[in-house]
Specification:
The structure is a single chain. Strand 10 and strand 11 form a beta hairpin. The protein is globular. It has three helices and twelve strands. The model has no long low-confidence stretch (mean pLDDT about 95). The two termini are about 20 Å apart. By secondary structure, it is mainly beta. The chain has a ten-stranded antiparallel barrel. It has a single domain, classed as Lipocalin, CATH 2.40.128. It holds the Pfam family DUF4166.
């Protein structure tokens, strides 16, 4: 069973049918899609060196722009400890650079999704999934930790990057829409992208 279906329970059936297909990712299955991010923007310019450093881990990046080609691949697999995992590979094709925003997700015993971002992991965030009345997928972050090798350091509220993701299916465009917003209580918007993409085989 998909970790997202297991987490959402009865809510899963309220998703738009195309979102149900998209999030039914079990071991040895893959979802692939291509599209365009109509907007990619970051936070304060002084954070750019930190975002540039994060590119070494395929995490965040300093580039911004409009109408940036985009590729997403979600692969289901079984981890070394036997738990079901989903690999997220997000690729952004800027005119002069190709950037990545990758993650590894699995299901926590408490019903939250464990999200390890970067390769190797640099950041950890608990994610809470819910289905809106319109049948959209909404994702919010909870506890977060900085990952330093095998050490994980909890982040206080003022240092957190609060994540909000809304994913819809647009019937008129026959495409998925995505809006990702990462904010901080002090600095405001840290990172944001918004766009549409179409599945290769749905």
């Amino acid at each position: 069973m998909s970790i997202y279906k297991e987490m959402l329970g009865e809510q899963f059936h309220r998703l738009h049918p195309m979102l149900k297909s998209r999030y039914t990712i079990s071991p040895h299955t893959t979802f692939k899609a291509t599209g365009v991010m109509t907007k990619i923007k970051g936070g304060p310019r002084w954070l750019s060196p930190f975002f540039l450093l994060a590119t070494r881990w395929k995490f965040l990046f300093p580039e911004q722009g409009k109408n940036i080609p985009f590729r997403i691949v979600n692969k289901g697999q079984i981890g070394p400890n036997g738990e079901q995992q989903v690999v997220w590979e997000r690729t952004f094709f800027f005119p002069k650079k190709t950037r990545y925003f990758n993650a590894l997700m699995s299901l926590d015993p408490n019903g939250l999704v464990k999200d390890y971002l970067g390769e190797p992991s640099l950041f950890y965030s608990e994610l809470f999934f819910l289905v809106t009345e319109e049948g959209s997928m909404q994702i919010e972050s909870r506890k977060q930790r900085l990952v330093i090798g095998k050490l994980e350091v909890s982040l206080p509220k003022l240092l957190k990057g609060n994540v909000l993701v809304i994913e819809n299916y647009l019937e008129k465009l026959n495409a998925f829409s995505i809006h990702v917003l990462i904010t901080n209580p002090i600095l405001g918007t840290l990172f944001e992208y918004e766009g549409v993409f179409q599945a290769d085989d749905l």
